[in-house]
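Protein modeling request. Please complete all fields; requests missing the sequence field cannot be processed.
Requester role: graduate student
Desired output: 3D structure, token encoding
Chains: 1
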Amino acid sequence: MAVRSLLTPPIAFAHRGARAHAPENTLEAFQLALRLGATGLESDVWLTADGVAVLDHDGLVGRAVRRQAIGTVARRDLPAHIPALEDLYASCGAEYELSLDVKDVAAAGAVIDLARAAGAVGRLWLCHPDWQQVASWRSLSDEVRLVESTRLRAMRPGPERRAAQLRAAGVDAVNLHHTDWSGGMTTLFHRFGRYAFAWDAQFERVLDALLRMGVDAVYSDHVDRMVAVLQQSQVAQREMASKERLSREFLRLSPITQ
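Delivered output (258 residues):
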């Protein structure tokens, strides 16, 4: 039996934009992802030397031995393909969920301020592998969504204890590799009111299995596959809900026999 998600429908995050279809972490990739039907975008955020929040995966620019950390370079000196977060909101609007891996923890405040200015702080999901670091950002906003991105093996002393810690700290979700999830694991985190997110969901069979487990968001490079499987899952859930309603109505109207 399928496990129900807490979020209906689950969020379809385009990992680094539609990176299977366009250069990753570019405005082109983000725009394409939304056109293909993604309901969320994902990227990594860093601060430049002059304090601008920009979107890039590894945080390095230049070639070979002359590579530099983004934090040491002014915004105007970055390659043109690296967008600022402000550029993303200007180009794509704010009517989607946005998941950002905060690679430079000093960027959190600037990111929240930009999302607030765009009217999107309630759709901003800030991710980091250290749940206590994530929890510290709750003081910056009551609306921002907070996510621990980790692996199951890193949860000490175990997932039930971690779920309780996340609830107590105001961290909304946990993001695990798709191989870490099971129906029992999503049920555990849902019992504590925490969302279950799954990353690296690249194939139809993986996406379908995750949705049956009740995950609340998936991350994929292949936006077309992700959207198609999500749509199929929603149709199946509506059909199941309709059958359940008919069954309850039948039982209600059936005469009670001794």
